[in-house]
Specification:
Low-confidence stretches: none
Largest sheet: 5 strands, antiparallel
CATH topology: Hypothetical upf0131 protein ytfp
Radius of gyration: 15 Å
Mean pLDDT: 92
Number of helices: 5
Number of strands: 5
Strand order of the largest sheet: 1-3-2-4-5
CATH class: Alpha Beta
């Protein structure tokens, strides 16, 4: 467990009984093995990431704009970009479990911020929340983390995201 566990547990208790939230996951949280390892390391044994359908976010793109010491290089956030799209999965998260998602995504430490966006599942729009790099922490200095890219591709593959999208993610490592 880390120093944020107690903070998250207090937030969970305060959130009990609230409305569930739709969470658009597009990054390494989709790597189930890595997520399970993180969950265990942080003491969230009572939480399981639910199943969720493949979803498409339009007019956004990945930006390798956060330098992460843990990943050893820059990792992905979201930026507005007309005509672009990214894929992920749409999860319904209880209000009590939302603080765990905030912790996993880095909102607890100020690395990321929540951002609303529209996503499509089987042609139907949904309003969801994703996480993007905190504008005050964005940087394009340094190399992109190869280890992060490997986890990103592994997660996209295991999540069943479209093959052409997975291929585009794989190409990020070649550039």
């Amino acid at each position: 467990m880390d120093a944020h566990h107690d903070q998250v547990q207090r937030a969970r208790a305060a959130a009990r009984g609230g409305a569930p939230r739709l969470y658009f996951a597009y990054s390494t949280v989709l790597d189930r093995a890595a997520f399970e390892a993180w969950r265990g390391q942080h003491g969230y044994h009572d939480f399981a990431l639910p199943e969720g359908p493949v979803a498409e976010a339009r007019d956004v793109a990945l930006a390798m704009d956060f330098p992460s010491r843990w990943w050893g290089g820059r990792v992905a956030g979201l930026v507005d970009q007309k005509g672009q799209r990214i894929f992920g999965r749409l999860f319904t998260i209880s209000s009590e479990d939302w603080p765990i998602i905030q912790h996993k995504e880095g909102a607890i430490t100020g690395m990321c911020v929540e951002r609303p966006l529209s996503v499509w599942v089987e042609g139907q729009p949904h309003q969801a929340t994703a996480f993007a790099t905190n504008p005050q922490r964005r940087s394009l200095e340094g190399a992109v983390s190869e280890r992060f890219l490997e986890a990103l591709v592994r997660g996209a593959t295991s999540a069943g995201l479209p093959g052409d999208y997975v291929a585009a993610l794989q190409a990020l490592g070649a550039s």
